[in-house]
Amino acid sequence: MLTQSDDLLEHTVKRLGLAALGAAGLYLLSRMVFKRLVTQSASKILREPYDRNIFETYAMTSRVNPMIMVDTNLRAESGQAVMSFGTPFPMPAFEGIRFNTAQLHRFSTPQDVEVDTTLVLGKQAAKPLKLDIPILITGMAFGNGLSKQAKLALAEAATLAGTSTNSGDGPFNAWERAAAKHYVVQYGRTKFNRDPKILRQADMIEIQFGHCGWVGLGSKYAWKEFTPELRKAFELKRGEDLVYHANFPELSKPQDLGRLVSDLRKITGGVPIGVKLTCGSDIERDLALILEAGVDVISLDGGQATSHWSPAAIHDNFTLPSVSGLCRASRFLDKEKVRDRVSLLVGGGLETPGDFLKALALGADGVYIGFIALVALLHNQEFKALPYEPPTQLLWYTGKYKNKFNHKEGAKYLANYLRASAEEMRMMTRGVGKSALRDVSPEDLFAVDETSAKIANLPLHYQSAL
Question: Could you give the CA distance from residue 176 to residue 417 in angstroms, rounded to a whole number?
């Protein structure tokens, strides 16, 4: 019995020794192979001309933005216009602006003083839109953008947070209206959302002349591309394509806008009537015509805004930066002395509570959020799609995983984001010595770069106030 135990121990020791010897040999061999591979590769990179050198791949890609590289290959593959989700190019934003500190020259607002966050749109309208916070959900369409679950989540989150959601340039839906306490209906350059029965259910009408992804362009979608659900929602007859006109067919000249505003005001019984447009370099001329029409609200879409399935050529090459469009519009409205009756909203690249409050300080009454709202909506659900698909596949109407998206969870987290943002805006408002978000103004700001200073007419950080 003892002999058998000794033999077993001897065999075990031999096997362990051989395993250790094999591992050591494999380690040494792998080091030799790895060193040889590195030496040969480095030698080729350092000796071969660039036209045969693999390192030229780095030289190519380092000269081009990764999105441009992908866009180029997509154009080469399809021979068609590339559709994207915003521009990769940087442009002036709110990061170059900071808040002044209230300490001794002006005291900060005590913590027990309530900070007013409310917003009234359509100050002289018969039925003004009253919101608890000045952060609104921007227009994002059902069907040619978001799924029903995603739209429901946006509506429910807006209700929980005391703000509004927006139909976007898609169809009105009764289920979305039922979920939203405050609902903005876009009146677009197409056939749907024109029924007076629909318009009377809106808390605000937004006449949409353009948005970041398409500016004022028209587009056409084949009937066969739509599901039966969408054909019904878009009011398409059999074989009828969906057409977004470049301009409103009922407006033969810009001055006809006043008649449309008046008609919508009568149909709705006096809810605020707004106009949405992108910020072009002729913004003051556009605004003059909008004011002449007697609108209650102006909504601006700046260059950093994103839009699902929109031409990369438009995103990358059109529209003023949001901060520039806002500052120019605000100065124009001040000059025209209409701030007592016309409200100003801005959207496009506003992503933090600091961005939101800076926009208010520079003249906006409220801000629109879209992309960042979707990010908050996806909290704790991203990995239902990742790592094999982008998280947005949970949100798009055509998304592969849209049925996995829990809209109740999405609504909860977006509402949390909105509440947290409002609270941080209250903190910053106390920090500049004010007690209402609407009272924060350019006097509470300074710029840390010359571009921001010139855009917003602000003092630079190194300039004395004395």
Answer: 21
Q: Which of 448, 421, 453, 452 is nearest to 437 (CA)?
A: 421
Contact 310, 83 (CB under 8 A): yes
User: Which segments of 194-249 does DSSP mark as H helices, in order?
Assistant: 196-199, 228-233
pTM: 0.89
The whole-angstrom separation of Cα 136 and Cα 447 is: 26
Using DSSP, state whether 338 is helix, strand or coil. Answer: coil
Residue 219 CA to its chain's centroid (Å): 22
Residue 143 has φ and ψ, to the nearest 5°, of: 95, -65
Q: Is the CB of residue 142 less than 8 Å from the CB of residue 136?
A: no
Output the tens digit of pLDDT for each of the chain's 466 residues.
Answer: 445 666 666 667 677 777 777 787 788 888 888 888 888 877 877 887 866 777 777 766 777 778 888 888 899 999 999 888 778 788 999 999 999 999 999 999 999 999 999 999 999 999 999 999 999 999 999 998 999 999 999 999 999 999 999 999 999 999 999 999 999 999 999 988 999 999 999 999 999 998 877 787 888 889 888 899 999 999 899 999 999 999 999 999 999 999 999 999 999 999 999 999 999 999 999 999 999 999 999 999 998 888 777 888 888 899 999 999 999 999 999 999 999 999 999 999 999 999 999 999 999 999 999 999 999 999 999 999 999 999 999 999 999 999 999 999 999 999 999 999 999 999 999 999 999 999 999 999 999 999 999 999 999 999 987 7
CB 85 within 8 A of CB 316: no
The residue behind tokens 């952060």 is 135
- For residue 323 the two structure tokens come to 């901060």
Tell me the two tokens of residue 74: 């997509």
